[in-house]
Amino acid sequence: xxxxxxxxxxxxxxxxxxxxxxxxxxxxxxxxxxxxxxxxxxxxxxxxxxxxxxxxxxxxxxxxxxxxxxxxxxxxxxxxxxxxxxxxxxxxxxxxxxxxxxxxxxxxxxxxxxxxxxxxxxxxxxxxxxxxxxxxxxxxxxxxxxxxxxxxxxxxxxxxxxxxxxxxxxxxxxxxxxxxxxxxxxxxxxxxxxxxxxxxxxxxxxxxxxxxxxxxxxxxxxxxxxxxxxxxxxxxxxxxxxxxxxxxxxxxxxxxxxxxxxxxxxxxxxxxxxxxxxxxxxxxxxxxxxxxxxxxxxxxxxxxxxxxxxxxxxxxxxxxxxxxxxxxxxxxxxxxxxx
Length: 339
What we know:
Layout: H1 12-24, E1 37-42, E2 51-56, E3 59-64, H2 73-86, E4 92-97, H3 103-107, E5 109-112, E6 119-122, E7 125-128, H4 144-153, E8 158-162, H5 168-175, E9 180-185, H6 188-200, E10 210-212, H7 215-225, E11 229-234, E12 239-242, E13 245-248, H8 253-260, E14 264-274, H9 281-289, E15 297-303, E16 329-335
Helix pairs in contact: 1-2, 4-5
């Protein structure tokens, strides 16, 4: 069978031919209690770019990327039927239609079951999720290995989590024994999800450490106050524009890093993430290397994205992410004030 068929050539055997081998590659990621979350099928790198399927505990989240406002319901239905047969413990399914003309269509519709999962467990930590909150399901699965790194490297640290969103990275730092974590984001609703994660894990909840506001203003305020952190997490969106400043991950990576550098203690670290599909790994590394002259910044290591996102040996990237293994490019920078 030629798997390179167009969407108009669709039939049920075609979608099964893609989903079966993808599922076989991920058997080691399942857990007995069905509480974990990962990408079940990444059509962008597994030959069928109209479809992406994520698993959040016992809820399927199906992303329909068909270039039509109504998506392709037949493909979605066949995918749900396939997983119901192969994973009979699945209790619900949500479809998110990327090109829908309505926010509800893009954020998701429950099409199987009556209840969706509201939390998942990863590396022993519980994370609150609101799968219908946003187009992206409120939790970024591609940073799983970074959360593991944070759990292993945050003990005793004072951590600043910028662009926190629902704060899974900050929660991982808290789980790793951080002395204190400050979560900042423009949207208070996202931070409220993070507070639920604290409750799920019985972490002490200090509401003053969940602060909403503009990034540029907030960082300046922290600088004026003389606040210093051992670890700063910098995970901005691809693009954001407010009256106080613009985030453009293809143009001002170094500007963002330099904005938080004064807040990092001598010997501290910045977790620098760039998720732009159109910004190559080479260009990102060159931008980071431009900061290293003088010995004040060191590129200490890079962190990969999990195999469930790169489950193919023949990926054709929009822009080559090498030396990173995915367009979500993660680097750990060590900061010195006296090189």
